[in-house]
Amino acid sequence: MQYVRVNESSAEKIKRKLLRSALFDSNRSVKHSPSYVYFPILSISRNRIKKLLEGSGASLVEGKPERTLQKRKSYSDMLKEVTTKKQYESMSRSYDILGNIAIIAKRDKLMGKEKELARVIMRIHPNVKTVVAKGGGISGKFRTREFSHVLGKRNFNAVYKENGCIFGFDVRKAFFSNRLAFERSRITRLVKEKEKVAVLFAGVGPFAIEIAKMHPKASVLAVELNPHAYDMMKENIALNKVKNVTAVKGDVNRIPRKFYRFADRIVVPMPTASTAFLDSIFRIAKRTAVVHLYSFVKLESMSSDVTKRIQEHAKKNNYRAKVLFTRKVTPYSHGDIEMVVDYRITKK
Ligand SMILES: C[S@@+](CC[C@H](N)C(=O)[O-])C[C@H]1O[C@@H](n2cnc3c(N)ncnc32)[C@H](O)[C@@H]1O
Fold it and tell me: 315 C-alpha vs ligand 1 centroid, how far in Å?
């Protein structure tokens, strides 16, 4: 380890010089002896440092670090400090961050330690201004869930950035999952320059807006039934300054006729029911189109159930279907997983 050794009397001057030249190693501590101060420096060329020290009376020396500066405490260390071993081991410690809002598990999974957990999360993530706890599972056709306020500002409006876009929404009134960020980026990268893309079950617009932003010459149709999610999607379209998304409020099964035969690509991010909407896909698909279908499936059967249904619906609608890609998206619960199947349909 390299140090600059200097007399007490010149120490301040040399320190300033090292800081100005960005040579001071702030991760190691300064050492002292009765007559010298030792400043830790980053390992760089000896000639450069010698030149810098010329005529100053300071010199370059090798030495062992006295002690490294204390590492920042980890999330688990901080949490262990405010819980008993039993509480720590039994409580649900995972959380999601949607910009300014952190979401923790239902209170009954937190061993009465929700405030402590929230405090630790807010210390680790200074951008988090509010911590809310899940009130139950995702339910209903709008796929929403209840939340209760735990700590910080009493606010349920998230402002969340993902893949270069920004989304605002009330976490209680619209579905949003940051766990789909990779999928949104994957699909966005597959879209071609002037494609026409339909996003069914569009929510507050993340798939549609990310695609539109990266492909300004593409045309994106985004269909959403939940009025709040639809309103937020409109605001998010404006917020991200995308001009190529047409938002439609309504049921995927009642898409306006003018969008029949519209799409080169169709994204169907509604895993609880997407196979029930398979016929609507053929109404808006061109003679050839690529579909990205998200579904919950049993782990053991994986894609086989879904691909069977895809084939059945293609046949019924006089199309051929060819599976291009499958991927496990997120674990769901007890043997069920969310998966995506990418497939091409071609009119017979
Ligand atoms: C699982 S969420 C997906 C939201 C969004 N694509 C995302 O990635 O965040 C499904 C969305 O479909 C909407 N929805 C449910 N049934 C619908 C229907 N029949 N037609 C259109 N949208 C529907 C829900 O309100 C919800 O916003």
Answer: 26
